[in-house]
Design brief:
0% strand; mainly alpha; single chain
Length: 140
């Protein structure tokens, strides 16, 4: 799989270093421009990210200040003794309304038979409807 390369001993390593220094190995000319370009791009990206962050914080701050001015104008429920009485009266009215509707409501079959004179299938067969059976079962 992988070739084992023998390590250089001290003498060979010294020869390699001396030959590299004598030959004057230099980096490619474009390397400096490439590295400086990457650094400049990284700095620009950091500036863009920072500007986005500042924009988000500014928008959040503006919304918070707007809520300070708008929130007091909302009609909020305040609990005080007089408000508690009003809530109790409203709840009682709602319960009374539900009771009235439950007592005076008719099923579809009852309305049809009332206006057309046609009897329902249960009346003809002498059976109780499911609602009547359920109310008998509950209120025994």
């Amino acid at each position: 799989m992988s070739e084992k390369r023998p390590y250089l001993n001290d003498e060979e390593l010294a020869k390699l270093i001396n030959s590299a220094e004598e030959d004057g190995v230099e980096a490619p000319a474009s390397l400096e421009k490439m590295v400086l370009g990457r650094i400049e791009n990284a700095e620009q990206n950091k500036k863009i990210v920072y500007r986005r962050y500042c924009f988000k914080v500014g928008i959040g701050l503006a919304c918070a200040v707007a809520m300070l001015f708008v929130a007091p104008s909302f009609d909020m429920v305040r609990t005080s003794p007089s408000d508690d009485n009003a809530i109790i009266v409203q709840n009682q009215i709602a319960v009374d309304k539900q009771d009235y509707i439950a007592q005076n409501s008719q099923t579809r079959e009852e309305v049809i038979s009332q206006f057309s004179g046609v009897r329902s299938r249960d009346e003809i067969l002498g059976r109780k409807s499911i609602a009547e059976q359920l109310s008998d079962y509950i209120f025994r």
